[in-house]
Write a structure and sequence with these properties.
Blueprint: E1 9-13, H1 18-29, E2 33-38, H2 54-64, E3 67-72, H3 78-92, E4 97-100, H4 120-145, E5 152-156, H5 161-166, H6 172-192, E6 198-203, H7 210-215, H8 239-251, E7 262-264, H9 265-272, H10 284-292
Parallel strand pairs: 1-2, 1-4, 2-3, 4-5, 5-6, 6-7
Amino acid sequence: MSGPLEGKVALVAGATRGAGRGIAVELGAAGATVYVTGRTTRARRSESDRPETIEDTADLVTEAGGHGIAVPTDHLDAAQVRALVDRVADEQDRLDVLVNDIWGAEHLFAWDTPVWEHDLDNGLRLLRLAVETHAITSHHALPLLLRRPGGLVVEMTDGTTEYNRDTYRVNFFYDLAKTSVLRMAFSLGHELGPRGATALALTPGWLRSELMLETFGVREDNWRDALDRVPHFAISETPRYVGRAVAALAADPDVARFNGRSLSSGGLAPVYGFTDLDGSRPDAWRYMVEVQDPGKAADTTGYR
């Protein structure tokens, strides 16, 4: 059976691991051809020094039912991004979905460290990786996406507009980066909407990424073993959950109703009827506002 995205072409920029990988796989499961980019390949690791590779992601896309194509790309290098988009244009003559998920800055920030004490070079590098890369990619990719009406741009970030407006996020540089991406989606919505395309911001909840599982010393099959140490981790979700959110958005003929808006995986699950891999629907941002941030005991009843 063909999926709802059969014949569609997607570019997931920053698909080496985490949310980007989960999104790429779910787009593939819906039948799309998915170009996956990043700096870590089977031959070379990026500065993040993680083992996950874009080739592995492309294989997972194909195994899920799509067509995965890995293209090593440094999205800070405009020439490389231009060459990537030229390749998509030459091979497909279309781009239906652009997911800007470039990040790779986990090693560059210090928790709760004021700007005057934070390493300046690391902070500025974080901003380049998290913000400048998105701008470069949009600049080069959007003319191709606009060749046909109905294109979708998803700006991936951490936190909704409402949550980040009222909440200090980690430190000056992290807060600025994640809020800037939210504003990018708002701005792109104004530029793309009149031209027949949609831009929106999307955040996962507490993501059980490869790095997060490793940090807590657990695997996906025993992640609940970490709850004794980190009780609120009970609201966490797999990267495939936000991937299903993107696949649902991409298949929605009325997706323009979300143009310029900030959305979350947990908020979209009941709208589209998808679940996480375990059949649950974690709503992490509502949980954080109503349970975690007020200091209440961990209890996901009614939140997943």
